[in-house]
Amino acid sequence: MPDTKVLSESRAQKAAPPERKGRRLWKRVQKELRSLVPAWVFFYVLFSLLRLTQTAVLTEHHITASPPSRVLIGSLIVAKSVLLVDLIPFLRRLESKPVVVAAAGKTVSYFLIVFIFEYLDLLVVHRREGLTAATRRFGSELTSSLFWVLQLWMFLLLFTYSATRALSRTFGAKRFREVLFGRSSEA
Known about the structure:
The chain has 8 helices and no strands. It is an all-alpha fold. It has one domain (36-173). The N and C termini lie far apart (51 Å).
């Protein structure tokens, strides 16, 4: 008798249609978007504020700033890069540390990623001049006070992002929303 039960269970499993590849792909895309959208929104707002600051300063000297499309594309690239950085085992171990330690460690890693992205962005913009000339241009930007003011803002806002994510992990998503926005309507 046990053999017939095993046979009928295996037939039932075979009879059930396998999940279609399109459906699995759609579920994976949905999961990816759920994790990417909050990071992207944060970096889009961050880069927009930094661009606004940069535009305000450069307009006084009759210099045009980068187009808004670079803010959109850059925020998507950096958001995905930050999510990939979170997968690094060394940084995942920081999640068990106090919130300030975890936020500080992740802030430094995020800042390095954004700094590298800024360098690569400048290389792409000035690719016709060559690698050496573009690197010199980036070096000249490093001496600008505007550059360092923007980096300071970037660092502080990245710390805010890191601390918020660490607190969200510590409290749990539901409790974090209750603490941040007040009592839930489900109560």
